[in-house]
Amino acid sequence: MQFRKFKFLVSVVALALALIGCSPTPETVGEMARTSIQDVLKVDPRFQGTGVEVVRVQLAVDGDKQYKGIASIRHKGVVHEIPVNVVVDGLSIKWSTAPDAFSFIPQTRPPL
């Protein structure tokens, strides 16, 4: 019984190490970025209640762990496309846009 548990544990660790070594596809990173941007817009007091929705994020590889692309953001029925940069490090994702990228969304509160 102990041998089975050990064998299973070794298999899980080996699979995890194999996945860490693989670069995620642009589609996978795009979906991760879409979710992350949507989460930020949902909790940021400046944009709460605006009804903004991140429709999709399309990315292309731009170097080791780096991606560039376009985020499609819907606000009041109009889709706005903004440039986005994404860096993936292990299980974490960091995205950035130009400072005025969300200027088409009226802010409900001034920035801090």
Topology of this protein?
Blueprint: H1 2-21, H2 26-43, E1 53-63, E2 66-75, E3 78-89, E4 92-96
Structure commentary:
Residues 1-29 form the signal peptide. Keywords: Signal. Helix content is 34%, strand content 34%. By secondary structure, it is of the alpha+beta class. The longest helix is centred in the N-terminal third of the chain and has 20 residues, at 2-21.
What descriptive keywords fit this protein?
112 residues; alpha+beta; signal
Share of helix among residues? 25-40%
Spatially, the strands of the biggest sheet line up as 1-2-3-4
Q: Find the count of extended strands (DSSP E, 2+ residues).
A: 4
Low-pLDDT residue spans = 12-19
- Count up the helices: 2
Query: How would you sum up the global shape?
Result: globular
Euclidean distance between termini CA atoms: 58 Å
H/E series = HHEEEE
Q: Please describe the biggest sheet, giving its number of strands, its sense, and whether it closes into a barrel.
A: 4 strands, antiparallel
Rg, please?
19 Å
Structure, briefly:
It is built from two helices and four strands; from the N terminus they run ααββββ. It is of the alpha+beta class and 112 residues long.
